[in-house]
Amino acid sequence: MIPREILKKIRQIEIRTNRLVSETVAGAYHSVFKGQGMNFEEVREYQPGDEVRSIDWNVTARMNHPFVKKFVEERELTVMLIVDVSGSGLFGSRAQSKRELAAEIASVLAFSAIRNNDKVGLILFTDAVEKYIPPRKGRKHVLRVIREVLYFAPQRRGTNLPGALEFLSRVTPHKSIAVVISDFLESPGTAAQPIQRRAARRVQSDVISDATYTALRQANRRHDLVAVHVTDPHELALPALGRLLLEDAETGEIVEVNTGATANRAVFADRQAKAQADLARLFRSARIDAIQLRTDQPYAAELGRFFEAREKRRLRG
Fold first, then answer.
1. Residue 104 near residue 66 (C-beta atoms within 8 A)
2. Which domain holds residue 10?
3. 200 has a pLDDT exceeding 50
4. Both 27 and 119 in a single domain?
5. pLDDT tens digit string along 110-136?
6. Are residues 23 and 57 in the same domain?
7. Of 66, 172, 231, 261, whose CB is crowded by the most CB atoms within 10 A?
8. pLDDT(287) > 80
9. Beta carbons of 127 and 187 less than 8 angstroms apart
């Protein structure tokens, strides 16, 4: 029996995202995510303007009149949501945590998929794959996906995206739309680091590791990979709150940071801006479509710009 407060939260997300899906995203989703080919539908009489290459010469010979083959797009797709549920996702300096934002984005994409008769699957990962829900259709299935993203209690706290992408390749042998929803904060190593660098890791990894970059590139060769980078404003700029004790949500390590010093905040903000730019550059070099969303900003406009830009690239290509 699902507690009433959980059902209420899931229903709120469905209501919030349903209008966006109906008015904007479902149509844009259909335009930018295409099937894997064309299926033969029927043969019809030739009409002026039809491609000569589409003439069915066997039928034409039998009927002594030109006929052409009609094809329709192979529409059904599989959308795999690969969602980071590591400890850092629980952070949120506003009304919404990064994990709650991830659940809303998963809801928008999942409802868009089922409206286009596509299947939706889910992989939840930390530094291990914690849960796998095979792709299916239907509203009930999507509501289960939202519930798991919001309320699943992982056994671990770290982050291992390459492991999740390797799992994806095993359970999804055919090409899919693979959407990675993560803050792309990797668990720090055991090597000693300066305090300022360690403090920065509480909020934002400098850049993804070589192993993660390689795994993303390989996954993008097999699937249509989209990276959804969720972040929080306090991961980009420290508030001036004096001396703070910060706990790493993934390792439990605690450090003291003086946020009252203007110089410290400036160094931190510069480092984080560079990390953001480096991450965007790595996505571009891997030819991965990416979008950054923040817990303190509406995401509808960013999603709209993402779909518009992707559609323009598709038409140019």
1. no
2. 4-32+76-316
3. no
4. yes
5. 999 999 889 999 999 999 999 999 999
6. no
7. 231
8. yes
9. yes
pLDDT for position 205: 40
User: What's the length of the chain?
Assistant: 317
CB 149 within 8 A of CB 179: no
60 with 92, same domain?
Answer: no
Give the CATH number for residue 93: 3.40.50.410
Tokens 């710009």 belong to which residue?
305
Q: What is the pTM of this model?
A: 0.81
Split into its structural domains, the chain has a count of 2
Beta bridge mates, 256: 245
CB of 42 closer than 8 Å to CB of 20: no
Tokens of 93: 């300096």
Burial annotation 254-271 (CB, 10 A radius, 16+ → b, else e): ebebbbeeeebbeebeeb
- Asked whether residue 102 falls in the same domain as residue 203, the answer is yes
* 72 pLDDT higher than 60: no
Q: Do 52 and 171 have their domain in common? A: no
Strand ordering across the sheet containing 224-231: 129-136, 119-125, 78-84, 177-182, 224-231, 289-294
